[in-house]
């Protein structure tokens, strides 16, 4: 009976009630959206890289090194020389090392120069390895393996050709169109920045940046893949040769006017960073100290998990600020609901007085007002949840494409239920004031004759 009376009373004022429900729904949308976005960002960042003991780069901030080497955000302030990469990768503590070279892009997607070992050792999530959806890993120069999103958005298949551009912006005026790449493989979706990356070999990176005035150091290709089995004479690093141009194995220019043969054995002068896996995780801190105290050049070694925690500490203030703003919006909408209830009390004085006159207890009147507030808040909370879930389902792919964030559907988690309960409880508390005023003087004023 109580709920039926409350519903009937709300229906008689449906326009103002509807506006109040919408305002609460907007507040719910914001507060649940902020909380879900925060949780998804943490989850997305934490599952991006797994099984990497150390990331080594030029000496800069740990956060900057983590962002550009793993998340493809930003750019390195400096590079690691190839000699330092070799020396560190051949250390007794190192089980494997993967070089990373950044600085180019393709239609807004980052290009990563690396070796075939990247596809073997790089893992994400719960130590899940990278898998090919189609094709195979690149074996020579001018071959590319593209991420799932790159292939889907640009319509690439195995055998497609693409041209890499200099720089990392969406618009570039310098294209390496003299060296088109052939897509040899497409990776399965991972939900990480790997999906938005074009992977090529290090020799390919050297080839597309080579000019007639520039020469490159040539080494056997096995030096990329067998760092632990072959020792190199670093003193021979001053031996250079002119980049060969022959007809055999050449790649045609797009206008078919010139041909270039790319040496698969080109070795870079430097790389942007390196991923390191150690034989024993007990020695992580020892090897990190060795990297940080490296004498030949200024290097920095970071542990991915530690760097991530530092990143969240930096973002903690922003998260709290967003949560505070969302809470203030919720309080504002609740105060609007209270104002609506107070404004309706003058119109409902006769209704409440009649209820009191026929024997309704004061608590019964209070409960009706409370039930109305709870119904309004519950309707607004449910509407806000449905709107947010619908928006995430419809805009999830767009958010991923535009911002690189992988946002899952909104779950009915303990956190979500907690916020919904908070909305209803706050509405019940704020409705106590108009409920108290409703019976305090409603009987005398409601039954008096109005002139």
From TrEMBL:
One Pfam family linked to the record: MacB_PCD
The organism's taxonomic lineage, starting at the top: Bacteria, Pseudomonadati, Pseudomonadota, Gammaproteobacteria, Alteromonadales
Keyword Magnesium: no
Boundaries of every ABC3 transporter permease C-terminal domain copy: 324-438
Residue ranges of domain MacB-like periplasmic core in the record: 15-207
Topology in membrane: Multi-pass membrane protein
UniProt source species: Lacimicrobium alkaliphilum
Protein name: Peptide ABC transporter permease
One GO CC term, this protein: plasma membrane
Membrane spanning stretches: 15-34, 321-342, 354-379, 385-405, 417-437
Biased composition (Basic and acidic residues): 228-263
PANTHER family the record matches: ABC TRANSPORTER PERMEASE (PTHR43738:SF2), ABC TRANSPORTER, MEMBRANE PROTEIN (PTHR43738)
Protein localization: Cell membrane
Keywords of the record: Cell membrane, Membrane, Transmembrane, Transmembrane helix
Biased composition (Polar residues): 213-227
Region feature (Disordered): 211-263
């Amino acid at each position: 009976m109580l709920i039926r009376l409350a519903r009937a009373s709300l229906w008689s004022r449906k326009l103002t009630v509807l506006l109040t429900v919408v305002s609460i729904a907007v507040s719910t949308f914001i507060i649940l959206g902020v909380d879900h976005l925060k949780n998804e960002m943490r989850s997305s960042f934490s599952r991006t890289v797994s099984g990497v003991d150390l990331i080594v780069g030029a000496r800069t901030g740990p956060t900057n090194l983590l962002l550009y080497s793993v998340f493809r955000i930003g750019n390195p302030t400096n590079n690691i020389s190839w000699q330092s990469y070799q020396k560190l990768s051949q250390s007794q503590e190192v089980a494997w090392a993967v070089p990373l070279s950044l600085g180019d892009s393709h239609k807004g997607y980052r290009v990563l120069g690396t070796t075939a070992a990247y596809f073997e050792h790089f893992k994400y999530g719960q130590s899940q390895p990278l898998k090919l959806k189609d094709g195979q890993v690149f074996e020579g120069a001018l071959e590319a393996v593209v991420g799932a999103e790159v292939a889907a958005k640009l319509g690439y298949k195995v055998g497609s050709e693409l041209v890499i551009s200099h720089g990392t912006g969406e618009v570039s005026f310098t294209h390496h169109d003299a060296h088109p790449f052939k897509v040899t493989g497409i990776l399965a979706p991972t939900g990480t920045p790997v999906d938005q990356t074009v992977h090529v070999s290090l020799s390919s990176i050297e080839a597309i940046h080579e000019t007639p005035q520039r020469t490159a150091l040539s080494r056997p290709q096995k030096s990329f893949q067998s760092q632990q089995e072959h020792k190199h004479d670093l003193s021979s690093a001053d031996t250079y040769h002119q980049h060969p141009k022959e007809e055999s194995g050449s790649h045609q220019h797009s206008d078919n006017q010139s041909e270039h043969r790319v040496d698969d054995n080109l070795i870079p002068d430097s790389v942007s960073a390196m991923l390191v896996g150690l034989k024993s995780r007990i020695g992580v801190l020892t090897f990190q100290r060795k990297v940080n105290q490296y004498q030949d050049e200024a290097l920095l070694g970071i542990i991915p998990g530690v760097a991530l925690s530092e990143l969240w500490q930096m973002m903690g203030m922003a998260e709290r600020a967003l949560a505070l703003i969302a809470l203030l919006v919720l309080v504002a909408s609740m105060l609007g609901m209270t104002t609506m209830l107070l404004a309706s009390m003058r119109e409902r004085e006769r209704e409440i007085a009649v209820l009191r006159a026929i024997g309704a207890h004061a608590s019964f009147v209070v409960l009706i007002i409370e039930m109305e507030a709870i119904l309004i808040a519950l309707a607004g909370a449910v509407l806000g949840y449905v709107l947010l879930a619908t928006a995430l389902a419809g805009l999830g792919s767009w958010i991923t494409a535009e911002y690189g964030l992988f946002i899952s559907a909104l779950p009915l988690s303990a956190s979500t239920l907690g916020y919904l309960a908070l909305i209803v409880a706050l509405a019940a508390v704020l409705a106590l004031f108009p409920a108290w005023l409703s019976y305090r003087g409603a009987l005398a004023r409601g039954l008096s004759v109005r002139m």
